[in-house]
Amino acid sequence: MAVQDIMPTWVGATAKQIARGVRRGDVSATQVVADHLDHVGRVDGALSAFRVVRGGEAITEAEKVDEQEELANLPLAGVPVAVKENTPVAGLPTWNGSVAARTAVAEADHEVVRRLRGAGAVILGVTRMPELGLWAITDDATAVTRNPWDLRYTPGGSSGGAAAAVAAGLVPIAHGNDGLGSIRIPAACCGLVGLKPGRGVVPCQLGAEDWFGLTEHGMLTTTVADAAVGFQVLAGRRPDKLVPPPRLRVGVSLRSPVRGVAPDAPNRDAVAAAGRLLAAAGHDTVPADPVYPTSLGLQGIATWLAAAASDVRAAGIDRRGLQRRSRRHVALGEWAQRRGYVREADRAAWRDRSVGFFTDHGIDLLLTPALAGPPPEATSWSGRSWLANMRTNIRYAPFAAPWNVAGLPSIVVPVGRRPDGLPVAAQLVGPPGSELLLLGVAGQFEMQAPWARHAPGYPRVDTPSPAVGPRAGGTIGA
């Protein structure tokens, strides 16, 4: 019997459907949360998406939502949400991907968690990530997190638990954060929508220095409409429907930021498919290759290394308890800082060049591959060497990181399947302030080529993409 045949009605619904049902009185927040907790109990043993599930606490929070007299202004009324385990949730330790990196029980919610609760969301639990959020593969000594599309593969990282949870319907939407691709890479691995906002749009406040300004909070979702609501809640904006964008000029590039690493055939085909969707929506596409300087890769790696060292130092973590790969990463980060290889001037130069790229080429957005290859196998990467982890991460997922350094918004959208059945995606990048434009174009993709909202065998509603609007004109989302 398939998983969805034994699941309650509201498991598999979108966040917008759930919130609308709770606001109208069609269902209670308590029932929705109870249904999802039951589903987590049945399914997560095979996935290991959650570090902690807040069973009784989540039910109590849902009851408080039901007791509110005015639900009309709660865009996420009764919606079960998961939070990534490096983001403080009151009453829980902040795990940061391992027991060794765990910090004390948080006395207060992080600002993004506070905003989610303020919108009516119920925090179901915290999701797993690799130690210190360093890797695009999610596992530690206690569990290997697996991709619901195929348990042999990773869901990506570092927001791997969040992506696995959403792709399996454990929650309709999940919080993540993205320092070098940690929302977009898991979204691509698991067939989800993943938006990284531009710098400063959502308050970050993670670790010592927000990874030197590279990290942003965002959401992983199964529909563009849910992505738009989640983004606007985190950004402190009044949620509104998306309007289809005007005719755009979109640059297309297969050029890799890493010399010697090129996208494989399925990822090249994904860009071609995305280009056809753009054309069908009335947009123009032109070749436009960013010039990724060699120094960008070196600067990005140096910053990646140094961010770990700064976080460990600031949190007072005993590095002797860290995984071997993490200890090496931290040690190299300290070396990079001592040698002066981590420079804001270098990052600022790339930001300026990236912003100018759109003007210089006369384009509104840039289309690139989301990944270079398939997700790696789900296994104990935490026990392997630093070099093995570095090689694997860089070879399969090089396309996201430059836009963290640049501080530009970017989104990953599903556009089909690989020959092995795993999802394949494309990435859209925009200039500062283009989050809603990116979401609008992603919505046009969704209307033209709806994707399976959940991995095969997991709960899903009857249509693959129910939260979309008309194919032409009007608004996007429901």
Can you tell me about this structure?
Helix 2 runs antiparallel to helix 3. The strands form three sheets. The chain has an eleven-stranded mixed β-sheet with strand order 1-5-2-8-10-9-14-15-13-11-12, sandwiched between helices. Strands 3-4 form a two-stranded antiparallel ribbon. Strands 6-7 form a two-stranded antiparallel sheet. It has helices at 15-24, 29-47, 55-67, 111-118, 160-167, 184-190, 210-213, 224-234, 265-280, 294-315, 324-338, 344-361, 386-396, 401-406, 435-448, and strands at 50-53, 80-84, 93-94, 103-105, 122-127, 139-140, 143-144, 173-178, 193-196, 216-221, 249-252, 284-287, 365-369, 410-417, 423-429. With 478 residues, the chain is of the alpha/beta class. The chain has 15 helices and 15 strands. Strand 6 and strand 7 form a beta hairpin.
Chart the SSEs and their pairings.
Blueprint: H1 15-24, H2 29-47, E1 50-53, H3 55-67, E2 80-84, E3 93-94, E4 103-105, H4 111-118, E5 122-127, E6 139-140, E7 143-144, H5 160-167, E8 173-178, H6 184-190, E9 193-196, H7 210-213, E10 216-221, H8 224-234, E11 249-252, H9 265-280, E12 284-287, H10 294-315, H11 324-338, H12 344-361, E13 365-369, H13 386-396, H14 401-406, E14 410-417, E15 423-429, H15 435-448
Parallel strand pairs: 2-5, 2-8, 11-12, 11-13
Antiparallel strand pairs: 1-5, 3-4, 6-7, 8-10, 9-10, 9-14, 13-15, 14-15
Helix pairs in contact: 2-3, 5-6, 8-15, 9-15, 10-11
Distance between the termini: 31 Å
The tally of strands reads: 15
Going by helix content, strand content and strand pairing, the class is: alpha/beta
Mean pLDDT: 93
Q: In percent, how helical is the residue content?
A: 25-40%
Taking strands numbered 1, 2, ... along the chain, how are they ordered across the largest sheet? 1-5-2-8-10-9-14-15-13-11-12
Q: Sum up the overall morphology in one term.
A: globular
Low-pLDDT ranges: 1-8, 460-478
Q: How many alpha or pi helices?
A: 15
Helix and strand string, N-terminal first?
HHEHEEEHEEEHEHEHEHEHEHHHEHHEEH
- Rg over CA atoms: 20 Å
The main pleated sheet reads as: 11 strands, mixed
- Beta-strand residue fraction: 5-15%
